[in-house]
## 1
Amino acid sequence: MSDVDRLRGWPATLTEGPVSLRPLRLSDVRVWRDTRVRNADWLRPWEPSNPETPLFRTGLGPYITMVATLRREARQGLALPWVVTYRGRFAGQLTIGAIVWGSARSAQVGYWIDGALAGRGITPTALAMAVDHCFFTTGLHRIEANIRPENQASRRVVEKLGFREEGTRRRQLHIDGAWRDHICYALTAEDVPGGLLVQWRRARSSVEEV
């Protein structure tokens, strides 16, 4: 696969109503760090214990390194690192990572949202846009979301969107001081032939009409 094929559809900015996804920039470092620090208690139970991924430090250096790494992976066709915005405000992050090409064409998604903005449908809207872009523009075939069983909020996001539960991965990641089990959720392109965002719009409309 050529570099052109790997980078198909990137960089990309996607918008649905007040929710947008845009590429992560070095200029986001300060607001990214400040949001993470403010949400430390909200995010800590679900974040990998990885020294290469800054969580709640006060210095900017680790964040600059993290952003530079993600941007390099994006140029290599190995990640799609987006910032989530809501009404133009920085709201969180959604990254399609661990992209495997060849016969797999698969990836994993991770996301987090500012706790002050939770409950507004921002994350499922952002995820639906990202999945559609991956399937119908980038050319991926399968997206996985691996979530701790205790993380009910994150599980509700993927369940609302129709991700299929495929079982438990024992002690998959080191999180919050210990090796933690994760539930694997997944979608393939065949699951959403008309697009995931269309399904999500219909689901939201049905709830609003009740």
Note: The two ends are 48 Å apart (CA to CA).
## 2
Amino acid sequence: MERVLGIGGYFLRAEDPAALGAWYRDCLGLDADEHGLWHQEAGPTVFAPFESGTEYFGSRTQQTMLNFRVRDLDAMLAQLRAKGADVAEETQDMDGVGRFGWVTDPGGNRIELWQAG
């Protein structure tokens, strides 16, 4: 059986794609090139379907949520707050999994940040 090798891309609708791309670069350090190609660090990826009524993604209209691995969650959240980003106050600790925090991008997409632990 053939299998997928990994996530090959994540695509977002945006009113202003250039501005949203700049936000990801300036706030999260996502250094994609002019074609959107980004060489990420090796690490785990979680694929997990959620119940349709979940509120975990924030807005009920958001059908998917992007999760980024981070080295230091507290430092990333402080960086985002310093740049005026919409950062959730709460964080979550999951034994054996790590720590989580959330930010909403200027397009209204809730993003999860994960410090593996």
Note: The helical segments are 17-28, 73-82.
## 3
Amino acid sequence: MTEAAVPLPEVPLSLRKRVEHVDTDASGVVHFSRYASLLETAGLEELERRGAGLDALTAQGLDLRVRELRVSYRAAARFQDWLVMVPSVDHVGPASLKLGVKLYRDGPEPLLLAFGSLDFAVVTRENGVPACLPPSLSSALKLAP
């Protein structure tokens, strides 16, 4: 294995994606802007898996607003690569949460391509003012995967 290669955990099919032509620039490399969407997809899937997804938040009259998006690039993803997204819940506060995502190229020697985080504020759906996470959702997010 190369320095950046790691054994990948098993992930649901929804966290695997094949790079499509629409994701790439003229040279066949994934455009930098596509990574934000991949991070969001993986992060929201992790919330869903933990029982605190958008439907659960909506049922409590809550929503999420992105406060900060960070992406660090290590290597290029290319047309028809298989990508594996590995999300994590990195922080749960009273009215916020931070999701991390690592993005790998799948293969015999998986390679870390990019990693990043999404920092969310919890707000009311009605008027967008900050709100606390209910204990049930906060507990679900804090449980180990």
Note: The first helix runs from residue 34 to 49.
